[in-house]
Amino acid sequence: MNILLIHAHPESRSLNGALKDFAVQRLQSAGHHVQLSDLYGMQWKAIVDAADTTQRLSTTRFDVAMESRHAFENGFQSEDITREQEKLLWADAVIFQFPLWWYSMPAILKGWIDRVYAFGFAYGVGEHSVTHWGDRFGEGTLAGKRAMLMVTAGGWESHYGPRGINGPINDMLYPIQHGILFYPGFDVLPPFVVYRTGSTDESRFARICDELGQRLDTLFSADPIAFRPQNKGDYDIPALTLRSDILPGQTGLSIHLSGRNDRNLK
Ligand code: FAD
């Protein structure tokens, strides 16, 4: 299978650098084809601006979404953007690897999303009407592909547990896993998270690699997170609220996961 690994760390001799090397080797020795986007190594341009298009739609005002659509539809995108979109289309699975910085991804990776996820490619796809609000959240250009976050965090696992001060890890990663990965169609696998990075020594590193190896070996067989698709009946459209007869009265991020309990209710 084809696997794209997007790596966002400024230092190759870091824990993230070592885990990236391990992952590439493991995947290749299992027979997969791997492409690496090492964002710092590529000196990836992280900001969206008018240089992202070779032919402007308007020279009076730079409207990010309209310029993005114009460039995507007419072949006017800068080459670095097109190359990354081609890698995404090539991939059967994409791994996003990064250290948790301020409860999110490093800016360089966010900038990769902002620029590569063009209008017409990752958003603005499909019919937009009062009965079908675009091909997104389970449908879209990247449907049929798998994605997984590979994240390192200085905090302890308990800090990200069900009652941890940071909130549960899957709640914290929801904007990335649901908003960035599920939105354009990816099936999203549970994240691989290394906690308490400061206490890593050689023996712990070996254990982390064992666990990571198992996750990589099951990249194409593990169950994805059961996010509810937008257009399969669970949501009222165009309000985009969960139907009132599903998990009645409940709120919060977890209602967007389908489960045994609510299936019985339907
Ligand atoms: P490194 O610093 O490279 O290494 C970590 C440890 O692993 C070191 O002890 C090192 O000796 C050891 N190590 C490295 N490579 C190996 C190897 N091959 N074998 C054995 N041991 C090895 N954390 C949070 O939890 N939440 C946050 O919101 C958050 N925000 C942050 C914001 C910023 C700006 C920064 C700088 C850090 C933040 N952190 C946060 C901590 C951050 O997540 C960790 O520092 C990061 O994940 C560690 O990954 P690294 O690759 O940089 O590790």
How do the helices and strands follow one another from N- to C-terminus?
Answer: EHEHHEHEHHEEHEEH
What proportion of the residues is helical, as a percent range? 25-40%
How widely separated are the two ends? Answer: 37 Å
Major β-sheet, in short?
6 strands, parallel
| CATH fold annotation of the largest domain | Rossmann fold
List of distinct ligands in this structure: flavin-adenine dinucleotide
The CATH homology group name of the largest domain:
Flavodoxin domain
Taken together, the total number of domains comes to 2
Number of continuous helical runs: 8
Whole-angstrom Rg: 19 Å
Strand segment count? 8
CATH architecture field of the largest domain: 3-Layer(aba) Sandwich
Mean pLDDT: 96
Oligomer: single chain
CATH C-level of the largest domain: Alpha Beta
Keywords for this entry:
single chain; 266 residues; alpha/beta; Rossmann fold; 6-stranded parallel beta sheet; two-stranded antiparallel ribbon; globular; Flavoprotein-like_sf
